[in-house]
Write a structure and sequence with these properties.
mainly beta, Immunoglobulin-like, 5 domains
Amino acid sequence: MKKQSKSSMKRIGLMLSAALVAAVLMPAAAFAADSISISHAAGFNAVQGDGIYIEVEARVLSGTSDYSLTLTSSDSDITVVSGSTGIFTGGTNQTGTFAVKVDKKASVGAHTLKVRAVADDGIGTIIREQNITLDVTRNMDSFSSLGGAAFDVDYSISGGSSLIAGQTQTLQLSLFNRGNTVIKNARISLTLPEGLSIASGAATVNAGYLSIGKTYVAEYPIAADRDLESKSYPVTVRIAGLNSSNSEVSVEETVYVPLAGTGGSGALDLEILNVKTPESVSAGSDFSVSFDVKNKGEYDAVNVKAELRVPEGVFNKTKNVFLIDRLAGGASQTCTVTLNARQGGEYALFEISAGSADGTQTVSQYGGTMVRGGGGGTNPQLMVSAYSYGGQPVRAGGEFILSLTLNNTSSGTALQNIKVTVTSDDSAFLPVGTSNAFYVPSIAPDSSLTHEMRLAAKKDAEQRTSTVTVAMSYEDSSGGTYTASDIISIPVIQETRLVIDDILDPGYLTADQMGYLNVNYYNMGKTQLSNLRVTAEGDFTVEGSATMYVGNMTSGKSDYYSINFFPNGPGPLNGKVIFTFEDAAGDEQIIEKPFTFQVGEAMVWEEDPNMPQPEMPAEGMSTWKTVGILLAGAAAVFGIVRYRKRKKLIRDEEFDLNE
C-alpha cells in the first residue's frame, strides 16, 4: 500500500515538473486556435488555361505575433505559382495575393485549394487552416470562330520528358477538337523524320467520331536510332475524315519532340560524391551544402533528378531539386543548396538522392551539421517583415516603387552596418537612378525601418509572378557578422495590343439599299484578351444583332467582325465599331474604330408612258377566269405593300432601340 502511494506521488511529481518545463518553454506570444479568421476575398472563377490572382483576407480576432499566409493545391489541374506571402506584423488584418495557373485541360467545376495562416515562430505553427473553392469554366476560345476543322495537339513520352536514342518509348498524342465541326470516320497518322520509326502496329489509327470540344488520345511506340543527335525532331500529325456535311477534310499539326541522343542506356549507374557540410553553424545563419552527382556508366544518363531533403526546422533558401537533362558517361555535376536553421541545439541530418526522374532508379547519401544557439534566440535576426509594390501587378516596361520594411527581431541587440541587395530572377526588374543595393547605418532592437527604391520591369519580361531575393548582411553591437535573405513575389503583366484594320467603304450605296461592314482584328500582344465583345453604332439600322461576343482571344490570334445594315438616310453615314475587353489585370479596356460612308439618294422609279400596257382578256375568256386573275393580282399588290410597311416598322423600332 505504501509502495503504491509512493509510486503515485512520484508520477504526480513528474507530471508537475513536465508542466512547469512546458510553461517555461511556452512562447510568450502563443497563438490561440481562433486568433485569426480567413476569408476568400477575390478570384473565385477561372477559365481553362487562365492565370489568375486569388486574394485571401486574414482578420485578427485576438492578439497574435507575426504570421504569413500560404496557399497550396493538391489538384494537378491547379498550379500555385506564388504560394506564400511575406511576414505580416502581428495583430493586424492583412490581404494576401497569390498567383494561380489553371491547366488548359482542367476539369470543369469546383477545385479545392488550402489556405493556412502560419506563425513566424521558427517551427511553422499553423494557426488557422481553411479550404477555398475555385470554379473552372470551359475555355470557349478553344473553339475556332472562323469555322472549319481545327485541333490542338499535345504530347507526352513514357518514362520522361524526351525520347532516348537507342530505345523504344510510347509517344502519347492528345488531340483536342477546337473546330466548329465533328470529324467522322477519323484517321490519325504520323509523318516521322529520318531516324524515328513506329516500332510495331499500324501507322494509322482509326479514331472514329471526334466530337467538338473533346480530346482523343492516340499512342504510338516510337523507336529512335542509336546514333541520333540531341535536338527536337518534327513529328507531323494528320487528322482526316468527314465533316458534318460529309465532305472530306484534313488537318495537319506539327509537334517538336525532344530527343536525348548519343547512346542513352536505360540503366542508370549513378554515385553521390564529395558531400560537403559545415561541421557546425549558428542558429539563424545561412550555410551551404554541396554534393556531386557522377555518372559511372558508359552511356549518357538522361533525365536525372537530384534532391536534398532537409529535416524539420531547416529551411531552403534556394532550390533543393536539380533536374539534369544529360550527364555524359564518367562526368559529374556539382549541386549546391543554401539553407538556414532557426532552431539551435540540434543536429541537422540531410538526405541526398539521385536517380531517374520517375523515381524508379535512385541512390542515396547522407550528411549533417550541428546547429548551435539553443532555442534560436541567441543570434539577432534581420528580416523583411512587409513589402509593397503599388497594390497592382507591375506592367512590363513600366516603373514602380518597391517599399521594403526591415525588422530587427532582437529585443536587446542593435544591428548596424546593414547592406541590403535586391535581385530578381531572370533580371526581370532593374533599378532606376541607383544601384540594386542600399545601406542602413543601424536599426534599434525591436524596431523597423522602411526603405523605398524605384525599379523598372523589362519590356520583354515574361507575364508571371517573378521572385525577388532580398539579401542582407549586418553586424551586431559586438562586431559579429551575419547574413540573411528573404524572397518576395511581384506579379508582372504584359501590355495588351489589339490591332484593328481600317474599315473599307462598301462602295456606292443609296439610302434604300442594304450595306455591309467588315473589319479584321488581331491580338498582337503577348497576353490573352478576356471577355472580348464587338459592337457597332452610328447612322444606320443593323439587320439582326450588332453585338458579337468573342470570349477569350489568345496571343497571336486573328478574327473578323461583319454586319449588314440599312442607312438612316442620304448623306454622310458616321459610325464606329467598339471593342471591349479585359486585360491581364482584369481592367476593362475600350477601343473605338470610327468610319464614314457616303450614302446617295434613294432610287425613284417613274412609270414609262411608252411601256406597253397589259392586254385585256380575250372575249372568249370566261368570267370566272377573269375574276380569278384580278383577285390574284390584287393579293400580290396587297402582300407587297404589307411587307414594305412591316419592314419599315421593324427598322424604325430597331433604330429607336439603338438611339
